[in-house]
Amino acid sequence: MTQAFRLFGDFAHRYDLHTPPDHYRDDHAFVLDEFRAAGARRILDVGCGTGVFVEKALTAGLDAHGIDAAPAMVAQAERRLGPGRAAVQAMEEIGGGPALDGICALSWVINYAANADAAIAILRRMYGAMAPGGRLLLQCAHAPNMQAAVFEDREPGADGTPDDVVFLFQFAPLGPDQVKARYVYAGKSAGELLWEEHALNIANAELLARLAGRVGFSGVRIYGSWRRDPLGGSVSAWVVADRGAAA
Ligand SMILES: C[S@@+](CC[C@H](N)C(=O)[O-])C[C@H]1O[C@@H](n2cnc3c(N)ncnc32)[C@H](O)[C@@H]1O
Fold first, then answer.
1. 3-state SS track over 177-201
2. 102-111: burial string, b at 16+ Cβ within 10 Å, e else
3. Ligand 1 center to residue 233 CA distance, Å?
4. Where would I find the Methyltransferase domain in this sequence (predicted)?
């Protein structure tokens, strides 16, 4: 990670408040379904955050692990998963463990790659870390469909107070594959306020799919959502690919 973000640092313990685990249940079910279809057993969740998907994968019977570049997010994941399932490791450093049957990166983790060259290097490492027949699932921001609208979520606070947590976000496209993400978190009863900009790179599903093909992944496909619909007007796409037997 080139930059240390407060949202994933000193505010990591608030992540599940402004982004409740249940929000992404359909995406999680989709990824589990894809792993099941590929016969995956040992999987890695890259940028695992607070460990929500790893927990679901374990419950589904997979041998799941997660890595994340942010120590505070890994600390949250360990609270959820216990020791030994989540580790501090950047996606730029993937590799070195037993061969994986599946790798996923949910909620735009891949968009923290610094640029296309960095993304290629990461994809190469992912390819090298996988066993033949393994499946890759990357959820990525898609800048060409973004319109800089401002969104607002209101969530209960830690003690259940309704609307205590307010999360504002905006995704401003800067070009065909770059996005400026702006986040505002407010925890009203805790007196907390945070605002932050994140540069999201390789924010184009078609570009990411091409890069995956270039490093050797086969059967590269793009879905507009967990419904497996075409890319269409989606701002958050899935790039799915397989690690074939031949390099
Ligand atoms: C938007 S959060 C998503 C977390 C989780 N995947 C989820 O769906 O809840 C992005 C995560 O990516 C992690 N991240 C950012 N850059 C990374 C990198 N270079 N390597 C590994 N993780 C990274 C952040 O620390 C953060 O936990």
1. CEEEEEEEEEECCCCEEEEEEEEEC
2. bbbbbbbbbb
3. 24
4. 43-134
Cα 109 to middle of ligand 1, angstroms: 5
Is 183 close to ligand 1, i.e. is its CB under 6 Å away? no
Q: What is the atom index within ligand 1 of the atom nearest the CA of 73?
A: 27
Cβ–ligand 1 contact at 91 (below 6 Å): yes
What atom of ligand 1 comes closest to residue 105's alpha carbon? Answer: 6
Q: What are 173's strand-pairing partners? A: 179
Instruction: For 106-160, list the strands marked E by DSSP.
Output: 130-141, 150-155
Angle between helices 52-59 and 71-81 (to 10 degrees): 30
Which of 1-5, 35-39, 195-199, 239-243 is the least confident region? 1-5
Q: Which residue has the higher pLDDT, 52 or 244?
A: 52
pLDDT in tens, 7-32: 999 999 999 999 999 999 999 999 99
pLDDT at 246: 52
- Phi, psi dihedral angles at 81 (to 5 degrees): -105, -15
Reported as a single tens digit per residue, the pLDDT across 175-189 is: 999 999 999 999 999
Q: Is the CB of 119 under 6 A from ligand 1?
A: no
End-to-end CA distance of the chain: 28
Q: How far is CA 146 from CA 170, 202, 222, 225, in A?
A: 10, 14, 17, 15
